[in-house]
Amino acid sequence: MDNYLDLLKLILPEFLINHFYLVKNTKNGEVMHLYFEERNIPPKEQVSKVLIAHGFHKEVTIQDFPLRGNTVYLHIKRRRWLDKTTKEVIQRDWNLVAQGTRMTTEFAAFLKEISQ
User: Fold this and answer.
1) Residue 45 structural domain
2) Quick check: pTM over 0.90?
3) Total domain count for the chain?
4) Are 91 and 81 in contact (CB under 8 A)?
């Protein structure tokens, strides 16, 4: 399995592999769909809070670079958590993630835009 992860990191943004699970993939002709769900690992900046998984945001679809002549769509479901004490809904701050990874600024801006 680690060999596959290393290969995926060469093809897809590394942060995507680090923060999301690839849960499904389909291919229809020359169109490939990759489905990702955010891992259930609460944001580091929220470590002092008691958080429980609270479902996902609506799935977003973005077109990625073609692979071997195939059009590639990434379907991404971002997770949210519930603070047990305050009942506040928490989500990852993708601007903070962008500072610590090789995620492109454009993709970080995209994730920030869809989180509002």
Assistant:
1) 2-114
2) no
3) 1
4) yes
Place of tokens 């990625």: 64
AA letter at 20: F
Give residue 96's pLDDT: 47
For residue 91, what are its two tokens? 């989500």
Higher pLDDT, 63 or 30: 30
73 contacts 33 by C-beta, under 8 angstroms: yes
3-state secondary structure of 30: coil
pLDDT in tens, 42-61: 887 777 788 989 999 888 88
Nearest Cα residue to 26 out of 39, 18, 35: 35
Q: Which residues of 80-100 are buried (b: 16+ CB within 10 A; e: fewer)?
A: bbbbeeeeeebbbbbeebbee
Cβ(42)–Cβ(91) below 8 Å: no
**pLDDT band at residue 15 under the 50/70/90 scheme:** confident
